[in-house]
TrEMBL record:
Catalyzes the formation of 4-diphosphocytidyl-2-C-methyl-D-erythritol from CTP and 2-C-methyl-D-erythritol 4-phosphate (MEP). The record marks R183, K241 as: Positions MEP for the nucleophilic attack. It is an enzyme of class 2 (transferase). The record marks R32, K39 as: Transition state stabilizer. This is 2-C-methyl-D-erythritol 4-phosphate cytidylyltransferase. It comes from Streptomyces boetiae. Its EC number is 2.7.7.60. It catalyses: 2-C-methyl-D-erythritol 4-phosphate + CTP + H(+) = 4-CDP-2-C-methyl-D-erythritol + diphosphate. Belongs to the IspD/TarI cytidylyltransferase family. IspD subfamily. The lineage of its organism: Bacteria, Bacillati, Actinomycetota, Actinomycetes, Kitasatosporales. PROSITE patterns: ISPD (PS01295). Keywords: Isoprene biosynthesis, Nucleotidyltransferase, Transferase. PANTHER family: 2-C-METHYL-D-ERYTHRITOL 4-PHOSPHATE CYTIDYLYLTRANSFERASE, CHLOROPLASTIC.
Length: 264
């Protein structure tokens, strides 16, 4: 697919509420997964993580456009991949080159979303198995008026806060603990995060430096800095992020269980 202009097919969207777009940052290298192809292109049951993630989003009736943000040196390869394995109609897909940080990649993806689309989701390519109910819940909350919506789960481990490393501490050596936050007040957040488009655009405009870096690890954090409320909806354990090698083993197991239970 070389044409980057979305052409919305008229009839399949007829009678539906205005469509939402999903930006899929997929330009990371996957250092924590280990050496190899960029993470979004690594196979899960023989299909790249990115293709799983796009299919998962496309299952949501609200999604009309998916903008994939590819590793800059793989943009054409990603276009070819998605042309071979397209999202089912009426979902349109575009591919744009990404940046040096996740937030820069999101900003580049957002620039490609037509102004007419008011609800925008941001979903990691590295979360290939997000269930459609989670995507639907995020869209519904934004449509109901929340400017920023994040799926989240309770934290199940006890979390320690650490202080500055003592002088001479070797990497991997003991770290000083300075506190234990109340776990009942903590949530582990996932994607897709959903936004009113204007809020997301303003958050990225105001909080990125010249290189597009923000120092934030998710988009909702930028909205929080605007002083705009962010709300949580229930996340899902299958929406986990493939970060380390064991996550791929878990993802294969989840897919195998789905094939047994659901036949897909
Ligand atoms: N410059 C970047 C960095 C990350 N991402 C994307 O952001 C998502 C979440 O990031 P993460 O899991 O941290 O991916 P990586 O940055 O690839 O992982 P690592 O930190 O292990 O290298 C991924 O889908 C990743 O492709 C991106 O689009 N552009
Ligand atoms: C956005 C995110 O997926 C929320 O959990 C996460 O912060 C991105 O992961 P990263 O490893 O910090 O890039």
């Amino acid at each position: 697919m070389t044409d980057t202009t979305p052409h919305f097919r008229g009839s399949p969207h007829a009678g539906r509420p205005a469509i939402a777009a999903a930006i899929v940052p997929a330009a990371g290298s996957g250092v924590r997964l280990g050496p190899g192809t960029p993470k979004a292109l690594r196979p899960l049951n023989g299909t790249p993580l990115l293709v799983h993630a796009v299919r998962a989003l496309a299952r949501a009736r609200a999604i009309g456009l998916v903008v994939v943000v590819a590793p800059p040196d793989r943009t054409e390869a990603v276009r070819a991949l998605l042309d071979q394995q397209p999202a089912p109609p009426p979902v349109e897909q575009m591919v744009v080159p990404g940046g040096a940080t996740r937030q820069e990649s999101v900003r580049l993806g957002l620039a490609a979303v037509p102004e007419s689309i008011e609800v925008v989701l941001v979903h990691d390519a590295a979360r290939p198995l997000v269930p459609v109910d989670t995507v639907d819940a995020v869209v519904a909350a934004v449509r109901a008026g929340a400017p920023a919506v994040v799926p989240a789960l309770p934290v199940t481990d006890t979390v320690k806060q650490v202080g500055p490393a003592p002088e001479g501490r070797l990497p991997g050596g003991p770290e000083p603990v300075v506190g234990t936050p109340d776990r009942s007040l903590l949530r582990a957040v996932q994607t897709p995060q959903g936004f009113d488009r204007a809020t997301l655009a303003k958050a990225h405009e105001l909080h990125a430096d010249a290189t597009g870096a923000t120092g934030a690890t998710d988009d909702a954090a930028l909205v929080e800095r605007l002083g705009v409320p962010v709300v949580l909806v229930p996340g899902h354990e299958e929406a986990f992020k493939v970060t380390r090698p064991l996550d791929l083993v878990l993802a294969e197991a989840v897919l195998a269980r789905r094939r047994l239970n659901d036949g897909f």
